[in-house]
Amino acid sequence: MARTLYVGNLPWATKAEDLQEHFAAHGEVLSSRVITDRETGRSRGFGFVEVNDGDAEAMIAALNGSELDGRVITVNEAKPREQQ
User: Fold this and answer.
1) 60 Cβ neighbours under 8 A, 6+ residues apart
2) Bridge pairing between strands 2-8 and 74-77
3) How far, in Å, CA of 53 to CA of 58, rounded?
4) Which class for 84: exposed (0-12), middle (13-18), buried (19 or more C-beta within 10 A)?
5) Cα–Cα distance for residue pair 28/25, rounded to 1 Å
6) Does residue 1 carry a pLDDT above 90?
7) Whole-prediction pTM value?
8) Does 84 score more than 70 pLDDT?
9) Do the Cβ atoms of 51 and 22 come closer than 8 Å?
10) Can you point out the beta strands (E) in the chain?
11) Tell me: the pLDDT tens digits for 22-68?
């Protein structure tokens, strides 16, 4: 089973591959994505990482408040998307 982690305060230049590499040191990463603005294509400064359920808590504990390319990132479990 997989869980999705929210990652906030990302540096603007961060790519999905950077997120995957940063998290892979602490467990299995199934996928990663950085959210971008539809019009400009520029990063919105946050993203999501899908990880194995068994690795999620350890990743949150290890990476919340850690530094990625000079910025302190926020990592917590993503909240389900609300229906519109």
Assistant:
1) 5, 75, 76, 77
2) antiparallel
3) 10
4) exposed
5) 8
6) no
7) 0.90
8) no
9) no
10) 2-8, 29-36, 43-52, 67-68, 71-72, 74-77
11) 999 999 999 999 999 999 999 999 999 999 999 999 999 999 999 99
